[in-house]
Design brief:
By secondary structure, the protein is mainly beta. It has no helices and eleven strands. Strands 2, 4, 5, 6, 9, 10 and 11 form a seven-stranded mixed beta sheet that branches. The protein has a four-stranded antiparallel beta sheet with strand order 1-3-8-7, with no helix packed on it. It is globular, with a radius of gyration of 14 Å.
Length: 120
């Protein structure tokens, strides 16, 4: 079973920066689309950033220009660099891996989440 473990969350003041990491195991990391989702209190989980196997990226509009996703396939790691953080970035951040199988099936895997709190 695929395992994803996040680290790097915490409390930061508005305008500050945080870097999240996620290490995957029991998987062929390079074959997965890797992403970060977040869930704020009382809200649905939303996609924040995603990087495909070919390293193309996708960001939700509210984080464009502030967040950067990257991956290191040799180390089974995906990162999320978050700059100029805002209170509305607060939430639990989840690492996500998607294995796309020919025929239209996708297999999603999730980490346990790490809390990010942006507050003064």
């Amino acid at each position: 079973q695929v395992q994803l473990v996040e680290s790097g969350g915490g409390l930061v003041q508005p305008g500050g920066s945080l870097s999240l990491s996620c290490v995957g195991s029991r998987m062929i990391f390079s074959r997965h689309v890797m992403g970060w989702y977040r869930q704020a209190p009382g809200k649905q989980r939303e996609l924040v950033a995603q990087m495909s196997e070919d390293e193309s990226t996708n960001y939700t509009e509210s984080v464009k220009g502030r967040f950067t996703i990257s991956r290191d396939n040799a180390k089974n790691l995906v990162y999320l660099q978050m700059n100029t953080l805002k209170p509305e970035d607060t939430g639990v951040y989840y690492c996500n891996a998607v294995l796309r199988v020919p025929g239209g099936m996708d297999f999603h895997y999730w980490g346990q989440g790490t809390q990010v709190t942006v507050s003064s």
